[in-house]
Automatic annotation (TrEMBL):
SUPFAM superfamilies: S-adenosyl-L-methionine-dependent methyltransferases (SSF53335). This is Methyltransferase. Residues 137-424 form the SAM-dependent methyltransferase Erg6/SMT-type domain. The keyword S-adenosyl-L-methionine applies. One of its GO terms (cellular component) is endoplasmic reticulum. Pfam families: Methyltransf_11, Sterol_MT_C. CDD domains: AdoMet_MTases. Keywords: Lipid biosynthesis, Lipid metabolism, Methyltransferase, S-adenosyl-L-methionine, Steroid biosynthesis, Steroid metabolism, Sterol biosynthesis, Sterol metabolism, Transferase. Pathway: Steroid biosynthesis; sterol biosynthesis.
Length: 427
């Protein structure tokens, strides 16, 4: 399509029959123009329509001017409630692939998928190539995460009446309180993503937080977000592998990890590095992704769910809660307390991904929202705004969501096995 208003039809998945007109508004999109390099055309929107006679065929129109007054789009409603940091379709498109050359995204997806058991890959290969696998995963997936979830890429214990965003903040504050963070402390966030928890914890506790991350794209994004909220001088990012940290012994007053060290090929080695850089007498707190005692490795359904979660989340292997606790002991830590916080969460942690529920506050995660996103990515890839392979990334992330929901309902998986441990004063 071009600025002149010409349109083309692309076969897309129809939303539920109750929604025959859906509009996706994206501020300041880049649109192809007369075969040349995409140019900026402000105040455009994408309308996706279906007719009763053609329920699975949408017309995609690029139209100038604001969205029709008095009829906000569903995505706009979701944005207003969730206050997502990447608000538009073109923000999503511009970030797809991360630092991977846009022409190489499809081949990167091919290579990433081959690592995983869902496609016949082996655990040994994932562990020996974990740096490449995890970097490809976050280059491919980060924009989808930020578009759908916000800046903090994690689940949370959740109370009745509490929004997803509120629960995520409380989850982060809970960790900070368990570490007894105080103003002036020097803190390390291991596997910090784009720094959502880092910024929240730094502001909540008045501490200086360093984010450790091995992905260039996420660090670039995180630094920009730090500057935007005035934390550029007090919080920073370091690019490094958490199996080989570039810090001196006994550097930090506290260390935490939120759903990140599950990417480590060897938990003992990872926890030993954390132990090394933590000051004696100080604490490490972590939310770990784990399989529970309900998991049966001989159950084909359980194995499929585990494979789906590993594929859609860049994991070499999902360890059990028992394995994680033993690994942190083997690294030299003293266990203060541990608990699977999913066990007594009033609302299920997987609720935002459950296709049977609907919420405006996290609209993009609902069934209708995911259909819209899926179709939108298809459109963006078709018109050349998103790189080839973007639909496949969307697909394996949806597969992961299905596995997470099923794993949560069967109580064979938890994303919030929490423990606080201390490095002894004397070794």
């Amino acid at each position: 399509s071009s600025a002149s208003g010409r349109s083309s039809s692309i076969p897309l998945e129809a939303p539920p029959s109750s929604s025959r007109h859906l509009e996706i508004s994206a501020p300041d999109p880049f649109l192809p123009h007369q075969g040349r390099r995409p140019r900026l055309i402000p105040s455009r929107s994408i309308s996706i329509r279906s007719s009763e006679s053609e329920p699975c065929n949408f017309r995609v129109l690029f139209r100038s001017g604001p969205a029709p007054s008095g009829r906000p789009s569903l995505l706009q409603a979701g944005d207003a409630a969730a206050a997502m940091s990447k608000s538009g379709a073109l923000d999503l498109a511009s970030g797809l692939g991360g630092k991977i050359d846009k022409e190489q995204v499809k081949s990167a997806v091919d290579e990433y998928e081959k690592y995983h058991g869902y496609y016949g890959g082996k655990e040994e290969s994932r562990k020996s190539n974990y740096t490449d696998m995890v970097n490809k995963y976050y280059d491919l997936a980060t924009s989808f995460y930020e578009y759908g979830w916000g800046e903090s890429f994690h689940f949370a214990h959740r109370w009745n009446g509490e929004s997803l965003r509120e629960s995520i903040k409380r989850h982060e504050h809970f960790l900070a309180l368990q570490l007894e963070l105080k103003p002036g402390m020097k803190v390390l966030d291991v596997g910090c993503g784009i720094g959502g928890p880092l910024r929240e914890i730094a502001r909540f506790s008045s501490t200086s937080v360093t984010g450790l991350n091995n992905n260039d794209y996420q660090i670039t994004r995180g630094k920009a977000l730090n500057r935007s909220v005035g934390l550029g001088a007090t919080c920073d990012f370091v690019k490094a592998d958490f199996m080989k940290m570039p810090f001196s012994d006994n550097t930090f007053d506290a260390v935490y990890a939120i759903e990140a060290t599950c990417h480590a090929p060897d938990p003992v080695g990872c926890y030993k590095e954390i132990y090394r850089v933590l000051k004696p007498g100080q604490c490490f707190a972590v939310y770990e992704w784990c399989i529970t005692d309900h998991y049966d490795p001989n159950n084909a359904t359980h194995k499929r769910i585990k494979d789906e979660i590993e594929l859609g989340n860049g994991l070499p292997d999902i360890r059990s809660t028992r394995q994680c606790l033993q690994a942190v002991k083997d690294a030299g830590f003293e266990v203060i307390w541990d608990k699977d916080l999913a066990e007594d969460s009033p609302l299920p942690w997987y609720l935002p991904l459950d296709p049977s529920r609907f919420s405006l506050s996290s609209f993009r995660l609902t069934t209708v929202g995911r259909i819209i996103t899926r179709n939108m990515v298809k459109v963006l890839e078709y018109v050349g705004l998103a790189p080839e392979g973007s639909q496949r990334v969307s697909s394996f992330l949806e597969k992961a969501a299905e596995g997470l929901v099923e794993g949560g309902k069967k109580e064979i998986f938890t994303p919030m096995y929490f423990f606080v441990v201390r490095k002894p004063l004397s070794e």
